[in-house]
């Protein structure tokens, strides 16, 4: 009797898995499916026409190009910052380490306001740069600067734990054999760090595709010049072009999802390779 009752009781692990998957479905999967379905419901031609519309197409291109430039800069600076935090002792290191996560806490609109206050045409720095012919705010460099700020922690926090757990024996052996610092880094350290750099860069790119708050403050919302895809989506919703906004949103969503799927596959492949 007791055995039959025990068999009827749901297993705690099953309840936990079911609840977690149900929560994921309600919070993430269902909204994604709803948006995608409404975007493609009018048909492939209507979907492509909405995406290929000149303003939408330029906004998508600008979003991907600025995100790609941001990733190149962020991968280098993020890796260098993680290296400094792990390998060097200096006054205020703990404060610097805490400040790295600040972009996660600061509202993105506030980020845009800070950048305008520093680099805007009415600021001292902005005026000096303007006289030199360098325009940052209300131009495309301002978009890249905003993206660098909001994605700043990703590469650092991906590389930092790998550096902390890295065995220095191989680096010391390379130095003993006569390899210089750069040769040691490029041939010994970088191959170990590369997966974590790729992870942080992929997360940064996906985050940058959907950034709105900071970009709308620094870009100036100029069509065919500084209007990114998220700004375009918001504008089309306001103007009543719901399908155009849905189509561009679906492209952004699909791109981010594809990047994360590829990243997960590469990570699993690396884990399998390491296990082998």
TrEMBL record:
Residues 60-264 form the ABC transmembrane type-1 domain. Its main location: membrane. Keywords: Membrane, Sulfate transport, Transmembrane, Transmembrane helix, Transport. It is found in: Cell membrane. The keyword Transport applies. NCBIfam families: 3a0106s02 (TIGR00969), permease_CysT (TIGR02139). The complex is composed of two ATP-binding proteins (CysA), two transmembrane proteins (CysT and CysW) and a solute-binding protein (CysP). Part of the ABC transporter complex CysAWTP (TC 3.A.1.6.1) involved in sulfate/thiosulfate import. Probably responsible for the translocation of the substrate across the membrane. Part of the ABC transporter complex (TC 3.A.1.6.1) involved in sulfate/thiosulfate import. This is Sulfate transport system permease protein CysT. The lineage of its organism: Bacteria, Pseudomonadati, Planctomycetota, Planctomycetia, Isosphaerales.
């Amino acid at each position: 009797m007791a055995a039959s009752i025990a068999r009827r009781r749901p297993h705690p692990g099953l309840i936990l898995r079911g609840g977690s998957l149900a929560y994921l479905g309600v919070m993430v999967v269902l909204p994604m499916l709803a948006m995608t379905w409404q975007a493609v419901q009018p048909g492939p031609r209507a979907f492509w026409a909405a995406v290929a519309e000149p303003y939408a197409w330029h906004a998508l291109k600008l979003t991907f190009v600025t995100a790609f430039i941001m990733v190149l800069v962020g991968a280098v600076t993020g890796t260098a910052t993680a290296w400094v935090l792990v390998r060097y002792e200096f006054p205020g290191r703990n404060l610097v380490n805490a400040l790295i996560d600040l972009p996660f806490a600061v509202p993105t609109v506030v980020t845009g306001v800070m950048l305008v206050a520093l680099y805007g045409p009415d600021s001292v720095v902005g005026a000096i740069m303007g006289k030199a012919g360098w325009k940052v705010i209300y131009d495309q460099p301002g978009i890249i600067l905003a993206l660098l700020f909001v994605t700043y922690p990703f590469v650092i926090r991906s590389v930092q734990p790998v550096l902390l757990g890295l065995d220095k024996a191989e680096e010391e052996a390379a130095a003993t054999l006569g390899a210089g610092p750069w040769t040691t880094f490029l041939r010994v350290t970088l191959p170990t760090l590369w997966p974590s750099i790729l992870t942080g860069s992929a997360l940064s790119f996906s985050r940058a595709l959907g950034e709105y708050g900071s970009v709308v403050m620094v870009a100036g919302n100029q069509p065919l010049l500084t209007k990114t895809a998220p700004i375009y989506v918001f504008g089309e919703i306001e103007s009543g072009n719901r399908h155009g906004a849905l189509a561009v949103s679906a492209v952004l969503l699909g791109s981010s999802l594809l990047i994360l799927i590829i990243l997960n596959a590469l990570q699993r492949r690396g884990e399998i390779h390491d296990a082998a």
